[in-house]
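Reopening this ticket.

The earlier resolution said the output was attached, but the attachment link was broken on my side. Pasting everything inline this time so it's all in one place.
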Amino acid sequence: MSSWFGLDRELVERLVLGISGERPMGESSASTSEAAGEADTVCAAFARAAWTMIAEPGDGVAGLVVDALGPAEALAAVLDRVGPTELQRRVLASGWEGDPDGGDATASLDEPPATTPGSRVLGNALARWTPRLVAAEVVGACEAAIRVGARLVLPGSAGWHAGLDSLGMHRPHALWRRGTSEAAAVERTIALVGARAATGYGEHITFEAASGLVDRGFTIVSGAAYGVDGTAHRAALGSGGVTVAYLAGGVDRPYPAGHDALIRRITEEGGAVLSESPCGSTPSKWRFLQRNRLIAAASAATVVLEAGSRSGSINTAGHAASLGRALGAVPGPVTSPASAGCHRLIREYAATCVTNAEQMAELAGWAAADPQDGAFASPEERRVRDALSTRSPRTIEQIAKVAGLTPKEVAGVIGMLDLAGAVEEREHGWVLSASVR
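Inline output:
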């Protein structure tokens, strides 16, 4: 009986089918070349699943080896217990054009770059990876993913956010996802992050920002933590929007436990929960810090709404800046330690000062809601448009309450906007038309 990576071939095919949701092999009528190509695809998918367990998030040396050799050949090299000199020879023979000694790949490992082929960089990497390559544990992680309905998302596939590729050798080997693939890959995204110990001010600002951005057609990205993260997710869902959460542990282990219901709700209401660590993985401080780079990379802009000087969201802001993403920060009371991190970002890191959803939308590179650059016929029209959503229908009475106008004034404005094609009537009320998102 044939085997792949020391495992029964049928077992590998079954696991890949379960974690991908697609048939990994062609029909029996497929040509030999097509079958061989599909076999390679199955091997590569299983190998990437294994690499999410073998290497810690952000391991640039693993990224270098996988990029140079391909996931399956790189995994085979670890299984074959090749030495660092042989591994370096294979990388060089692959025609990989980067620095064969790792270069920036060692940045996340706190190691100096190697100076000769077969140096301690690859030797240390092999020493890290080899003990973690346990077939039963890889199979167990895949089976756990199948049990909870998690899917493996490969680079370049549906559900893979293109922004993750900007991480280079530090991009994930793959992601594990619960929820919809469309939510995970959408481009119109903003990361809203901040302190776990958020104040009432921070939670209020976050709620208003997330709700307003959802009304402008944005998907909200955050980390599902207490405080600002949780408020951002809840506000997005409460406004009928879509939100995406990146976790530091496996997607089968909601963390924090107090957000179990929130994380489940995200997956059930059109959003997605993702992690680069396999099912069964527990969060750690290192994984939280590395998770932050995914939040920054998968967002058009990152906004820090409230953060102390030592908040983990400052780390997310650093990743956003290093990736060239737009970075914003919301100012708070100058006497509040809870906003000291935001003030530092504005003062020292050139973060843009933003105070409302419209400014955050502009920061991300999209016009707010008005294609005429704010040239409204009247102040009442501006207020009515601000009170409308692109997703959640609202009645005349609801719009009037939000806009601070009388129902009669709102009805008049809605009539003009309807004639202009700026709004649409749904069964339960009015929404902004897609053309003005």
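Reporter confirms the inline version is readable. The domain at 149-363 is CATH 3.40.50.450 (Rossmann fold). The chain has 18 helices and 13 strands.
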